[in-house]
Design goal:
The complex is a heterodimer. By secondary structure, chain A is α+β, with helices and mostly antiparallel strands. Helices cover 49% and strands 21% of the residues of chain A. Chain A has one domain. Chain A has a four-stranded antiparallel sheet. Chain A is elongated, with a radius of gyration of 19 Å. The N and C termini of chain B lie far apart (71 Å).
């Protein structure tokens, strides 16, 4: 590659990497959802049960981490006024929410 | 000075289009973007919209901004027809501004018109390079790459313009491997975003299967609807004719991708994705064989009117705004339960938490909206608000609690 092309190509690559890196980290923490059908199915039914019990919309739940036994997610009540995200852990097949701080 | 006057007149048109869209209130898809709800598209545009969430005129601001962007994009159309006669340029500009999909979508807070605008920018870049000859410098190609990345991070459907983006990168000084990298790496990162948001993948699956039961003939009818709206029928014909006559296979391929997309997952608002391509093909047709195209304008306007009558916009307001205003007027502050299926516009219009109706949540709620039958509404504890568009209950004053 001629020298004059290297810097722009490098800049472009760095821009992509700056965005891709945090996304890759998130995808890594959620990898079991893609790799394990059992975890995927249990995660779906757990979230459906949790949201049904509390009257939440699924779109207000943002999964952050999934392992073989539990999920960590953020709940945001989407409104026009500023609302804090609330972080919870839930064991698969349970609907009992544990605040992340505890 | 003349250009300024034209720009101001165009802004008046943008205002009119934004006003027309506001008649229907905020729709559920628009509320998704205004509230930065993380599906189905990547976050770039909706993040910007949501920065103004606590502004009183948020809806109007973005309707006007988006309508203005689409309307003022006519200057790009003017440039695309550069070196053609004034009549050809003027005709192209009018065709852009008065296509059915343009009128129906400009001023809506949706991703499809934004993607169409980005597609027009890509087409302008392609035409500009061809006009000037030569190749893009490395930094220019880098800038175009960033724009391509921004387009994909605005909405996934930008990927339908991949053939156009590839044609642009092919005219850069990078090697073929570099050109392919500039094209595909942003697509890969956009794909990585989908992997990091499971709800996005779930919504893809839903969108891809929602029309699974639709018969092939009905799918063709939907494609015809999208095609017709995209170019008010006439532009669709002249656009494809121009692509074929000038052997513009990249434009033809991009048009084919959009058509295939509409066959899989049809929504009327996707029709605007055709418009930049139809217009580009039409400009090529003017250049090739049609030197006096002004007579096209009148039939185009007539067909636009017919298309809008055949496929009218949905101006039926959701009852969300009026209902929430009535609840606020009672002085009640607290959770609102909604029985039945409801869209995100209810979250948008409500200053209070909104939940699905679950009987166990009734004791903590201050208002209940019944989009379907509500169970357990004790008239000793709850008052039904009169004259509401939907059945709405508010909790009686403290003495009225059961």
């Amino acid at each position: 590659m001629p020298r004059s092309s290297r810097l722009p190509a490098l800049f472009f690559t760095l821009v992509l990497l700056a965005v891709a890196f945090p996304l890759a980290l998130r995808a890594w923490r959620l990898q079991l959802l893609f790799l394990d059908a059992g975890v995927r199915s249990a995660a779906r039914s757990t979230l459906e049960a949790v949201t049904a019990e509390r009257g939440w919309l699924l779109s207000d739940v943002r999964l952050e981490k999934a392992d073989a036994s539990s999920l960590l997610f953020l709940y945001r009540d989407h409104r026009r006024t500023a609302v804090q995200d609330r972080c919870f852990v839930v064991r698969l097949r349970s609907t009992r929410l544990i605040p992340c701080e505890s | 000075m003349r250009k300024l006057i034209v720009a101001v007149v165009l802004e008046g048109y943008a205002f009119l289009l934004a006003w027309m869209q506001s008649l229907g209130g905020v729709r559920t898809d628009e509320a998704k973007y205004l509230l930065n709800i993380p599906y189905p598209h990547p976050p770039l545009a909706r993040w910007f919209f949501s920065r103004t969430a606590d502004m009183p005129g948020q809806e109007w601001l973005w309707r006007f901004v988006l309508a203005s962007l689409l309307v003022q994009a006519v200057w790009l159309v003017w440039r695309m027809a550069n070196r053609q006669s004034l009549e050809q340029r003027f005709t192209a500009a009018i065709l852009w501004l008065t296509a059915a999909a343009f009128i129906l979508q400009a001023g809506s807070i949706m991703m499809a018109p934004l993607t169409a605008l980005q597609g027009l920018v890509l087409l302008w870049l392609l035409f500009e390079r061809e006009r000037r000859g030569g190749a893009w410098s490395a930094w220019s190609a880098c800038g175009i790459g960033v724009f391509w990345f921004v387009s994909l991070f605005t909405a996934y459907q930008a990927v339908l313009y991949t053939p156009v983006a590839f044609a642009i990168f092919r005219r850069s000084r990078f090697s073929l491997a570099g050109q392919v990298f500039f094209l595909l790496a942003p697509i890969a990162v956009a794909g990585l975003y989908a992997l990091s948001e499971p709800l996005v993948l779930a919504s893809f699956l839903l969108a891809g299967t929602k029309d699974a039961g639709t018969g092939f003939v009905q799918k063709l009818m939907q494609l015809f609807q999208g095609w017709s709206l995209g170019g008010s029928i006439l532009l669709g014909l002249t656009g494809v004719a121009g692509m074929l006559l000038d052997r513009r296979w990249t434009l033809f391929l991009a048009t084919g991708l959009i058509a295939a997309f509409l066959l899989v997952s049809f929504q009327p608002y996707y029709a605007i994705l055709f418009l930049p391509l139809f217009l580009a093909g039409t400009i090529l047709l003017f250049k090739k064989i049609w030197h006096h195209p002004a007579p096209l304008i009148f039939p185009h306007l007539v067909l636009t009117a017919i298309c809008i009558m055949l496929f009218p916009p949905v101006l039926l307001r959701s009852p969300a705004r009026d209902t929430m205003r009535a609840i606020v007027a009672t002085g009640k502050e607290g959770t609102v339960l909604i029985a039945g299926s409801y869209g995100h516009e209810w979250q948008y219009e409500s200053p209070f938490p909104v939940r699905r109706f679950v009987p166990s949540l009734l004791s903590d709620a201050e208002a209940v909206v019944c989009l379907e039958k509500c169970e357990g509404m004790d008239e000793k504890t709850w008052t039904k608000l009169p004259g509401m568009p939907v059945e709405t209950w508010v909790r009686k004053a403290v003495g009225g609690r059961g």
